[in-house]
Specification:
It is built from eight helices and 15 strands. With 317 residues, the chain is α+β, with helices and mostly antiparallel strands. The chain is globular. Bound molecules: N-(5'-phosphopyridoxyl)-D-alanine.
């Protein structure tokens, strides 16, 4: 029996992906309806940016992936070297199919691992072989207007669970949270647990006060973004004082600057939260501030230094 409703299917690209040992077009890749990723969201993922054909902070992404898999008691199906080889192959095939030279391609690779296929049962299935899926997209830089002017955000209660440190594919909390800002045409939802800042629906949130960059503690209530460590390193390099501590709602709304970071956003300034201009008491009211400019510049030099070298020395990753 067919449905009376005619839905217009979203367009699925035919670009290359990797599924359980094989490369195939994305719109032809299929997994079982009994995959625990589909039934329970029982899986983890990583988002690895690729600059000039090379993964950026690869080892850090692998360490976080290993941590997420361990929390779910899923055996890591590959060594870091094997992950690297598959990522490189995927990136190369994608570049070729888009007529790009490897050293000119910027992409974002998604690694998704579920516990695998098994009869439905909440108990963690023993012996299922993990489903491994990887796809890649062109790296879409933050639009120039948002770079120059900053982005508008809204605030909301963080109604997600208490294991936000796991990069899990169970993302309904994040989807509902992001939709709050999407409905208001804003770029991100900044979440609070009670009176304290946690993070964005898909990014970490930072504030600047009196020249000091502050981030919420790396605990179970936030995902430790790979940019956490990177921005810490940048602060050390360019002498920006950095502290990690609980940050109240008042501090966010009265900050001199507010920043977001993620693999795809890199680091971006927040111009407005809930109609209140960020840093309205400063000379850069509602505009990206000086600390943002310094960090963004260093971030870009870091990418250049690490990825845009002619060598393929693995230690560069
Ligand atoms: N999101 N916090 C949450 C909830 C996230 O989903 C992300 C990343 C981050 C930043 O992590 P990183 O610096 O490693 O990108 C923080 C990715 C980009 C996503 O799910 O698409």
């Amino acid at each position: 029996m067919t449905s009376n409703f005619a839905f217009e299917q979203p367009f699925l690209p035919s670009s290359i992906c990797y599924l359980n040992g094989h490369f195939c077009p994305l719109n032809e890749a299929k997994i079982s309806v009994l995959d625990r990723g589909f039934i329970f969201g029982d899986g983890v993922y990583e988002v690895v940016p690729i600059y000039f054909g090379k993964p950026f902070r690869f080892e850090h992404h692998m360490r976080r992936l290993a941590g997420s898999l361990k929390e779910l008691r899923i055996l890591n199906p590959f060594s870091n070297q094997e992950w690297l080889e598959i990522i490189q192959e995927l990136v190369l095939r994608f570049a070729k199919s888009h007529c790009q030279e490897l050293h000119q391609t910027n992409q974002v690779v998604y690694l998704q691992i579920s516990r695998g296929v098994a009869p439905r049962d909440h108990i963690m299935t023993q012996g299922a072989s993990p489903t491994v899926f990887m796809m890649t997209n062109p790296f879409k830089s933050v639009p120039m207007q948002s770079r120059q002017n900053g982005v508008c955000c809204v605030s909301a209660q963080d109604f997600r669970w208490e294991k936000a440190h796991i990069k899990t594919t169970s993302l309904l909390g994040s989807v509902l949270s992001r939709q709050i800002s999407a409905d208001l045409d804003a770029a991100e939802t900044i979440m609070f647990r009670g009176d304290h800042l946690s993070e964005g629906s898909s990014s970490n949130v930072w504030i600047v006060k009196d020249g000091v960059l502050c981030a919420p503690p790396k605990d179970n209530l936030v995902l430790e973004g790979i940019r956490y460590g990177l921005i810490e390193e940048i602060c050390e390099d360019i002498n920006i004082p950095f502290v990690m501590r609980k940050i109240s709602r008042d501090e966010v709304f009265n900050a001199d600057e507010v920043l977001l970071s993620s693999a795809t956003k890199e680091v971006v300034a927040v111009a407005k939260i809930d109609e209140k201009l960020v840093g309205e008491h400063t000379s850069h009211s509602g505009q990206p501030g000086p600390i943002y400019h310094l960090i963004y510049k260093s971030y870009q030099s870091n990418i250049e230094r690490v990825c845009n070298s002619q060598t393929t020395n693995k230690s560069n990753f």
